[in-house]
Amino acid sequence: MMPVEITKDEILAVYPKVAQTMADALGCDVEKVALNVPLIEGLDAESIDFLDIVFRLERAFKVKIPRGKIVEDAQGDLPDAEFERKGYLTEVGLERLRDYLSEVPADRFRLPMKVADIPRLFTPETFCKVVVRALRAVQGDDSRGRLSGDGSAEH
Amino acid sequence: MDSGLAGKVVIVTGGSRGIGRAIVELFSAEGADVTFLFRESSAAAAEVVAAGRAAGRRITAEQVDVRDPQGCAAAVERVAERGGRIDVLVNNAGLVRDNLLGLLEDDDVRAVLDTNIGGVFNVTRAVVPHMIARRAGKIINVSSVAGEKGGRGQTNYAASKGAINAFTRALAVELAPRRITVNAVAPGVIETDMSQAIRDRAGEEVKSRILLRRFGTPIDVAYAIWFLASRYADYITGEVLHVDGGFKME
Q1: Residue B219 pLDDT more than 50?
Q2: Residue B163 lies in a domain
Q3: pLDDT at A94
Q4: Does the residue B2 lie in any domain?
């Protein structure tokens, strides 16, 4: 079953709270947390900040976000050996990632790419989508719910 | 001398007996809100809680096997929920199953490694996000002189404690930018149930190799942990502090 596409409205519904959460975690002004700014190169986030961001998002939205969820979901049902080899993405793996991280400009997906460097692609929008998926999971079976202005889920 | 521990939310693993109990009692006497984890000593745990509460201290017990990552995560969440944060973690839970390498059962190796170092991973991983979010925290791991000094029949225990020392240094590097300190205390031979066998078997011989010519007491170790958790140790991280009466030097 194909996952239900995430709409721009859903992303914008959670974005203000996601941006504030990221600003708190990174110690920067919320105005700097644009939807499409790369977190590492644009906001000086370090890998440990992702742990903090996910922890804070879980509390802010009352959802559970398993560690490694973004890469795991991007890989989907693709076997490990077809997704990456010796720590580098395969061509198919890169294609999967590009499809999954559709908010990231296509020219940022270039081989060779280390799996460990995938977080360099992440933007606030990436995490907005993670939150939307997690909220849907709370509502049950990835069925689409309606998101209110503060990002909480309604039916 | 204000240690800064009053009102702090503290987790101590393995807190129902021995060194862990001394830590729980010392920290709670300082006014800290202490939750200790214990695996099976329910009666001892109840006694620690009852005695503490009778003295007006804030002590809570959680029955958790530190080998269980989900159980640890759930217990840590309960503490954070109750206290609103976690200020100090003391990873103290450990067990010993000494034997010569060739005589160790698989379970002797697995149980010691899974509890002594696996438990440190499980509890610390659950606690660290809380500390990172607040940009503050102190983690103190209870290692052992066995982590550095060779000891016959202690390959499993020594490996687990050496791993704790390495874990301490690595995590100190990782968490320093978030203003979280990570240190270890390495006790020598301490008068607890856990060291009873070795003290019975070779007590005098061991004592003759301790510079101060006596075994340590749980409170000797608890004071060192108190220091590392206090504001007096704000500028110390990545250290392994030996509390062994000079045993390591011999």
Answers
A1: yes
A2: yes
A3: 96
A4: no
The residue among B122, B171, B178, B180 with the most chain A CBs within 10 A of its CB, best to mutate, is B178
Q: Just list the catalytic residues of B.
A: 157
In a domain, B112, yes or no: yes
Distance CA B42, CA B45 (A): 5
Residue A18 lies in a domain: yes
Residues in chain A: 155
The residue that leads in pLDDT, B234 or A147, is B234
A1 lies in a domain?
A: no
Counted domains in chain B: 1
Strands of B68-201, DSSP E: 88-91, 137-142, 180-187
Quote the strand ranges of B33-130, DSSP E. 33-38, 58-63, 88-91
What are the tokens at B166? 């390495």
Distance (Å, whole) CA A128 – CA A36: 11
Residues spanned by the domain of A65? 8-154
Q: A97 Cβ partners below 8 Å, 6+ apart?
A: A74, A89, A109, A118, A121
CB contact at 8 A, B209 and B199: no
**Cα–Cα distance measured from residue A124 to residue B108, given in angstroms and rounded to the nearest whole number:** 48
Range of the domain at B77: 9-249
- Mutation for testing the B interface, residue in A26, A48, A67 having most B CBs under 10 Å: A48
Structural domain total, chain A:
1
C-beta atoms of A51 and B130 within 8 A: no
Would you state the pLDDT for residue A3? 61
Q: What is the CATH number of the domain that holds A57?
A: 1.10.1200.10
The question of ipTM being above 0.95 is answered as: no
Q: Does B1 fall in a domain?
A: no
Residue indicated by tokens 């103290």: B92
**How far are the Cα atoms of B95, B158, B242 from residue B144, in angstroms, in the given order?**
12, 8, 8
Q: With H, G, I as helix, E, B as strand and everything else as coil, classify residue B243.
A: strand
- Average pLDDT estimate for A113-142: 91
pLDDT digits (tens, 9 = 90+) for B109-126: 999 999 999 999 999 999
